[in-house]
């Protein structure tokens, strides 16, 4: 766990006191479930720590929000990790694959996360309601993410898309956006 603690300090990421303990539980569950269900491509603890760091770096630049949605949460990146790091924010984790949604539901119960709702649906199947923040990582291109997010946006909604270097090819210059670059990730932040 000390590697993750070191990485968080190195990137000035401030997390709640119980974050590392809960992340330890999350990692143990992920390792166990991943052997059977192949939930994520991250197989080593080092890769998982990198995915966790990648998920939480945005808390260094995001404003405080009450209600967030993560489209295509997968094994928990970034939605579940952000929910653990931001207990005051209510997260709706949208994951259509039942084995991943079941894992997320299990993590929610095991860690006692009252700020998490898991929806085993596609984003298009959800009832339209506004969110303060919508996140997504490794789901689809920016244009498609904008379409998927539209029913959940109101004025001021922030969209945070976890992208690679190709983000510059995908950006619509008419949007109110900024790109925050980190070591292995580009964070595309769009304000509606």
Write up this protein.
The protein has a single domain, classed as Rossmann fold (3-Layer(aba) Sandwich), CATH 3.40.50. It has a seven-stranded mixed sheet with strand order 3-2-1-4-5-7-6, sandwiched between helices. It is of the alpha/beta class. The protein has seven helices and seven strands, in the order αααβαβαββαβαββ.
For the report, how would you describe the main beta sheet? 7 strands, mixed
Tell the overall outline: globular
Q: Widest sheet: strand order?
A: 3-2-1-4-5-7-6
Number of strands: 7
What name is given to the CATH topology? Rossmann fold
Helix fraction by DSSP (H/I, runs of at least 4): 25-40%
Q: Which stretches of 5+ consecutive residues score pLDDT under 50?
A: none
Rg for CA atoms: 16 Å
Q: In the residues, how many domains can be counted? A: 1
CATH architecture annotation name: 3-Layer(aba) Sandwich
CATH class: Alpha Beta
Number of separate helices: 7
CATH superfamily: Vaccinia Virus protein VP39
Q: Approximately how much beta-strand content do the residues carry?
A: 15-25%
Order of helices and strands: HHHEHEHEEHEHEE
Query: Could you report the average pLDDT, rounded to the nearest whole number?
Result: 94
> What is the distance, rounded to the nearest whole angstrom, between the alpha carbons of the first and last residues?
37 Å
Helix/strand structural class: alpha/beta
């Amino acid at each position: 766990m000390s590697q993750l603690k070191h990485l968080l300090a190195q990137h000035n990421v401030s997390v709640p006191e119980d974050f590392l303990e809960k992340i330890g539980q999350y990692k143990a569950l992920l390792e166990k479930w991943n052997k059977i269900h192949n939930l994520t491509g991250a197989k080593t603890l080092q890769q998982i720590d990198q995915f966790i760091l990648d998920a939480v770096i945005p808390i260094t630049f995001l404003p405080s929000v009450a209600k967030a949605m993560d489209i295509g949460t997968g094994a928990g990146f970034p939605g579940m990790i952000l929910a653990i790091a931001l207990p005051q924010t209510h997260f709706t984790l949208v994951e259509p694959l039942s084995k991943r949604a079941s894992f997320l539901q299990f993590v929610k119960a095991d860690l006692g996360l009252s700020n998490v709702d898991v929806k085993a649906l596609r984003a298009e199947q959800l009832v339209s309601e506004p969110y303060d923040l919508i996140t997504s990582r490794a789901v689809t291109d920016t244009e498609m993410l904008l379409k998927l997010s539209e029913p959940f946006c109101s004025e001021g909604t922030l969209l945070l898309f976890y992208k690679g270097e190709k983000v510059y090819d995908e950006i619509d210059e008419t949007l109110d956006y900024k790109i925050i670059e980190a070591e292995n990730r580009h964070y595309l932040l769009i304000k509606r």
